[in-house]
Please model this.
Amino acid sequence: MQTVIVPICTIKNGEISDAGNYRPVGFATIISKLLEHYILSCISPFVAATDNQFVFKSQRGTDMCISFT
Model:
């Protein structure tokens, strides 16, 4: 399986030659995405996150950090 990494400019008005002005975006094949989804569904019951984690967690978002007590 192969993934193609493409640099995407983050600041349109910034310096084009500055490497810090780009972020990588990976384009993967459908098979690799299905495999990642399957692996995630298999291991997610065994991976625990704390209640203070808001990013990359189902039903949570960074805006919830403000109101979380």
About this structure: The chain has a mean pLDDT of 80. The helical segments are 30-43, 64-67. The chain has two helices and two strands. Strands lie at 3-9, 22-28.
